[in-house]
Write a structure and sequence with these properties.
The protein is an alpha/beta fold and 323 residues long. The chain has helices at residues 9-19, 32-42, 66-70, 87-90, 95-102, 114-118, 121-132, 141-164, 173-180, 190-211, 215-228, 242-272, 276-289, 293-299, 307-320, and strands at residues 23-28, 50-55, 78-82, 106-108. Helices cover 59% and strands 6% of the residues. It has a four-stranded parallel beta sheet, with helices on both faces.
Length: 323
């Protein structure tokens, strides 16, 4: 299996000493998709004396995931870069949360996952522009996600509460997702989606209040705990499970919007073309230039202007300023 199976910070440090030259810092991530994200962050702290190598936790197998990334002996020369999940919100209430929040050798996303940052409201319009080459504003992303977040906030608090007080077997992430990440948004009348969502959330909250009477004493203080961490009801979407947000709400919404933007542009071509050959040539060129919106969403770094991305950079600066 080789020594890499037992890779530790001490092993990397010893290898650096033997090889000489620039110091290598290994950064373990959870999956292949995470490599580009964490690489762009860590490159900002490369110097003539050190560089980073971002990789999965094992070169001998396809094993991956947060637990594996955190299971190694981390240190100055071997760090872990992981999704925060709910661990950051729990602030050390579990051993896993304690490691994510307190280890000087762990960087985390602050948002639930990288997918949440990719769904940052200020970057969604630009992703549509890059996918369709049409800059028309046809949907109020920021206002919609703020209202969506306000509606799901009480239920979100209940879901994190369930993990904090070991009740997640009765209200798990999947249960939360079935309420808040279902249905299709009518981009001409998004309030209909929000009204239906509000009804589902209110109904579920009422059920949870009956199911967990102990929450009468602990729910409000825990909600305040989340607010004290910097969460707001208007930004709940950044802290719910990223996969549910990305695949259940944002991507279907963007695909609908991009369909409309492409139809607009093709209509312009039909209207402005002088003859049939020009129309067909322009339509063919336009369709070749368009891209799938999910590809643009994953490639476009609109989240770099978000406060959570700034928090990641601040953590990285603290980690490397004395190394």
């Amino acid at each position: 299996m080789g020594l890499l199976k037992y890779l530790s910070s001490e092993y990397v440090q010893a290898a650096n000493t033997l090889k000489g030259g620039r110091r290598r810092i290994v950064a373990y991530v959870e999956s292949y998709d995470d490599i580009a994200f964490w690489s762009q962050i860590l490159r900002q702290w490369e110097t003539p004396e050190r560089y980073f190598e971002v990789m999965l936790p094992s070169r001998n197998s396809l094993a991956k995931g947060k637990k594996i990334a955190l299971s190694h002996r981390l240190g100055p020369d071997l760090i872990a870069c992981v999704d925060a999940d709910y661990d950051w919100l729990l602030q050390g209430a579990t051993p896993h949360s304690e490691l994510v929040c307190s280890s000087p050798h762990v960087l985390h996303t602050h948002a639930y996952a990288i997918e949440n940052l990719q769904c940052y409201d200020r970057g969604l319009h630009e992703a549509c522009v890059k996918a369709t080459l049409n800059d028309a504003h046809v949907f109020p992303f920021t206002a919609f996600l703020a209202k969506y977040s306000e509606i799901v906030w009480p239920l979100f608090v209940w879901n994190v509460w369930a993990y904090r007080y070991d009740r997640y077997d009765r209200f798990a992430l999947t249960d939360f997702a079935r309420v808040v990440a279902t249905g299709k948004v009518n981009i001409q009348a998004p309030e209909k989606y929000l009204d239906a969502l509000r009804q589902r959330v209110n109904k579920t909250v009422s059920r949870l209040q009956r199911t967990f009477p102990e929450g009468r004493k602990t729910y409000a203080p825990f909600r305040q705990h989340l607010l004290d961490l910097g969460l707001t009801p208007q930004t709940t979407y950044l802290y719910m499970r990223g996969h549910d947000l990305y695949d259940g709400l944002i991507l279907p919404l963007l695909e609908t919007i991009c369909q409309q933007l492409r139809r607009q542009r093709e209509h312009d071509i039909h209207s402005l073309a002088c003859h049939e050959r020009q129309k067909q040539n322009e339509l063919s060129a336009y369709r070749r230039a368009c891209s799938p919106v999910d590809e643009m969403l994953r490639k476009y770094n609109g989240y770099t202007s978000s406060p959570l991305y700034a928090a990641i950079l601040a953590d990285a600066e603290k980690m490397f300023q004395e190394k």
